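Contributing new records

If you add data, match the layout below exactly. Sequence lines come first and carry their own label; structure lines follow with theirs. Keep one chain per record. Anything else will be rejected by the validation script.
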Amino acid sequence: MRIAPSHLEMSLMQSMRRHRSRSRSAGFSLAELMIVLAIIAAMALVAVPWFVKIAQRQTIQSAAREVAVALTAARMKAVKRNAQVSFVVSNTAPVEFQTIEPAPPAPTPTPFPSMLRLPATAARFRQTPTGGVIVFGGDGRIAASADPRIIIEGPVGMRTPNAITVWTHPNGRVEVITPVNWQ
């Protein structure tokens, strides 16, 4: 003859069933975690080259902006002093350029030429102005330069480098022209 379970035994069995069902749905299995990690790794493999290209573009754009700012500063010095100021570009590695001002009237001390050097891996000049000099007159216009374009190529060591043109208009305005199709 079978004895019916007591009330205490019934509640204990129900409690165990609830506990088992909760423990099965409480977490993730190892297989599920591995699938998620594999998806994340695949996305990272696709994204890393893209981030490298963005960093390379930023490097060359930064170098072009440095040149444009130095040209604009030379123009502003020429207007401030109402005298010719030269912007000299060195076409050797590392890329260097300097602003040369005329000596001010006495007793003002003579300013040192301001020299700016870009990191060796940032860029190289593909084209510089004729003679490597752009001269701004006291009115801010270009006083002497046959071709006031500077073409910067980089980053150095890249298989297909990009070229950015820094063009100084005859009226002295400096413009940075970035490529339409980046490599």
